[in-house]
Amino acid sequence: MAPLRVLVTQATGRVGKELIAHLNEARKGGRDVFIRAAVRTESKADFVKSLGADEVVTFDYDKAESFVPAIDGMTQVFSANPDPQADGHAAFCKALGDYGKMEHAVRLSCFGADHNTASYDHDVHASIPGTGIPGMLRGYWRDEEVLIRELPKNTTVLRANFFQGHIVKPETSNIDENGFFSSPLGETKNSFVSTNDLGEAAAVVFLGGVQQHGDKYYDLTGPVPASMHDVAADLAKALGKPVEYRAQDIDQFEKDFGPQRRAFFEYLRNGFYTRCSPDFYNLTGKKPQAFYDYLTKPGKAGETGISEIWKAGMWSKGKNVMEGHEE
């Protein structure tokens, strides 16, 4: 099979690090794979090399001068970016098109607003009359679209449900200190997805090649819809101590995280993300990872979900990270 030269953006992220570890395992099994990890700070170089990266480059979506050194010589790219860096990601996609040698791109995204495999009307919310699709969902589609525009038949998109690791990340100190977490999701069940599965799916797609997976779109979810009470029960079992779920007022949630986050969470409150997709099984031949297993079993990169969740993240209570980036 043809050699792979894969550029992994967001290489130290939840999905990127798993992808690197899976590609490294495939190389040990005989596949010709070269992995270049793109990181924002050189201090992360040793970590990604320990997972199997052959080369590390400093890369930042806000610094266009970092694009060409990252792209040069690569034939595959894993595309992911933080929500506030959409403009930089668009510029990076233009650089990919100008490069002209990128054979296959795999994009990490979210389902619910696209115009190429569905016909979502951006002015029509799934459950609130007179309201449009949440800006964050439209943003995920925009981030897909700018890549598809440059590599229309050479892109595979992994459209993920809400990450399992994001459910209680802003509430970890509350769990530690008070034994409970709050969320506005209540009894609504959502099929939250494991980031371990996303990294594995990305590796399967790269290894399968653009001939098999180019111009394909996969919806990736968890194996079963879970309510916040279900989440609390799994957390209690994994942590070995009581964990209680307490309902949060959605208006207070907006004060804590901003209107963009609230609008997106309305889709987690109305059942839009309840369904379970067969796409992970179709790619890998196995069911998606359950939340409890994500919490307690190390991923290919060696970290459990508990360890990952208890690290600092982008979404912090009282900080609207999307301020200035709203559509």
Structural commentary:
This protein is of the alpha/beta class. Helices cover about 40% and strands about 15% of the residues. It is built from 14 helices and 9 strands. The strands form 2 sheets. It has a 7-stranded parallel sheet, with helices on both faces. It has a two-stranded parallel ribbon with strand order 7-9. Helix 1 links the parallel strand 1 and strand 2 (about 35-40). Helix 1 packs across helix 7 (about 195-210). The N and C termini lie far apart (about 45 Å). Residues about 320-325 have low confidence and may be disordered.
- Largest β-sheet summary: 7 strands, parallel
Please write the string of helix (H) and strand (E) elements: EHEHEHEHEHEHEHHEHEHHHHH
Shape: globular
Gyration radius (Cα, Å) is: 19 Å
Helical residue percent? 25-40%
Q: Total number of helical segments?
A: 14
| Number of separate strands | 9
Please state roughly what percent of the residues sit in beta strands, choosing from under 5%, 5-15%, 15-25%, 25-35%, 35-45% or over 45%.
Answer: 5-15%
Distance between the termini: 43 Å
Please outline what is shown here.
With 327 residues, the protein is an alpha/beta fold. Helix content is 40%, strand content 14%.
Key features of this structure:
single chain; 327 residues; alpha/beta; 7-stranded parallel beta sheet; two-stranded parallel sheet; 14 helices; 9 strands; disordered C terminus
List the topology elements:
Layout: E1 4-8, H1 14-28, E2 33-39, H2 45-51, E3 55-58, H3 67-71, E4 76-79, H4 86-99, E5 104-110, H5 135-150, E6 155-160, H6 172-178, E7 180-183, H7 195-208, H8 210-213, E8 216-220, H9 228-239, E9 244-247, H10 250-257, H11 259-269, H12 279-284, H13 291-296, H14 305-309
Parallel strand pairs: 1-2, 1-4, 2-3, 4-5, 5-6, 6-8, 7-9
